């Protein structure tokens, strides 16, 4: 039997398409993207929000071990040094203007991955890319449609991954070389319940997935058993991450794409809930 909880509103609607939340321990900030506005948002401990424009798209970001952060922009990656200097774009990896980067995360060995998709969501047009610590880029998975949530198990042996239209969370074996292999279904979600979007893994190995169109976040145990459901007062739930001083708060992003304020007044807000379990610190990019 699963536990049912209700997420609480943390902010006003601050994004059109909020995505990719990540907790920066050094500053005690929650950071996220307003993806199609090309903005990074930082929420300080006092609740104040600052916004930084990085391009036409801001897809996903993670802290860097050297300071600053790595961010996926519309057609590739860029680096922030954390010293106030301008963002440094890396060579573009997507040459088709109909494609953009979408969602990603860091592996246990400090590489940053981000997937792509077509603006028109063309079947199989996307891929998953890996930014290695030397700045080179490798293609890890091809034939994706909406490459989405990605995170690793606490022991680093497994990677959990979502290509949204499959209605599945898949699991891979992870090799320290950066390769993912042995892809197999971990959980399948009924279409009537929403579509899997962003995900995060907690310190016990539970997998938390946001359900686009489903107004909820679900936790599946490491064995694939549904054991917690978080209700969210917004239909288009996009992603989630752990944060707070004890890493026991689950922060949840939402979207108001194609919705009016009358349709869903809270769409685009950030929500939170006491998850009852601790998360893992954000893995850092070591490049």
For the structure shown, list the relevant keywords:
287 residues, mainly beta, Neuraminidase, 5-stranded mixed sheet
Query: How many β-strand runs?
Result: 25
Taking all Cα atoms into account, the compactness measure Rg is 17 Å
Proper CATH architecture: 6 Propeller
CATH class label: Mainly Beta
- Stretches where pLDDT is under 50 for at least 5 consecutive residues are none
- Do you know the CATH topology? Neuraminidase
Order of helices and strands: EEEEEEEEEEEEEEEEEEEEEEEEE
Helix content: under 10%
Question: CATH-wise, what's the superfamily?
Answer: TolB, C-terminal domain
Number of domains: 1
Notes on the protein architecture:
This protein is mostly beta strands and 287 residues long. It has one domain (3-274): Neuraminidase (6 Propeller), CATH 2.120.10.30. It contains no helices and 25 strands. It has strands spanning 3-6, 8-9, 18-24, 29-34, 39-43, 49-53, 58-63, 69-73, 76-80, 88-89, 99-106, 112-118, 126-131, 137-144, 147-152, 158-163, 168-174, 180-188, 195-201, 207-212, 216-220, 226-231, 237-243, 249-254, 270-274. The chain has a five-stranded mixed beta sheet with strand order 1-22-21-20-19, with no helix packed on it. It is globular, with a radius of gyration of 17 Å. The mean pLDDT is 97.
